[in-house]
Design goal:
Distance between the termini: 65 Å
Low-confidence stretches: 1-8
Number of strands: 12
Order of helices and strands: EEHEEHEEEEEHHEEE
Number of helices: 4
Helix content: 10-25%
Mean pLDDT: 90
Shape: globular
Length: 197
Amino acid sequence: MTELPTDLPATTRAADGWPRKAWTHHDLDRMVEAGLIPRNEHVELIDGEIIPMPAKGHRHERVRDAMNVWLYDHLARDKKVIPELGWRPAIRDYLEPDFLIVPRRVVPPQFPGTDVLLAIEIADTSHAYDTTIKRDRYAVLGVHEYWVIHAWELTTRVHRGLGAGGYCEVAEHARSVLLTPTLVPEVALRLDDLEIS
């Protein structure tokens, strides 16, 4: 049996089954510096594959702003909220979550997913991506709990209970339901209580 050379570049495999070069977040930084990717263009890197992100709409920004105020007002002093971080949890990952709640000792932007107590995405045009591809990546990275808030309906899909195949507990909650994060109970909220203009 012929062995593959060990000096080949890392690859990733897209849905069509053909291998692609697996980019790193260092490669992504160099592409931006070289002007190949405009600085104001939003992309994410999932297991080495560059994913263009849609623009965030006004409703997304209004919900994000209201959530930001709530989190800062209620979070315990031993934790911190990091909004819209260019997060580098692994060499082949670059993500832009709306909110990460982590212990205060964590220093961004490079820290493991196991340090994340709660990840929150506000989903408008990205709802399908946030509830499939991004959900699966957060599970692989070891993020303890992941919420996807639908910007227009204000429903929340809560993902908990990491297992070998991803999140074992997934539940959809209406805007009137009290949401209590397992590791951050002090920020419990009903989305109905947010002041969204």
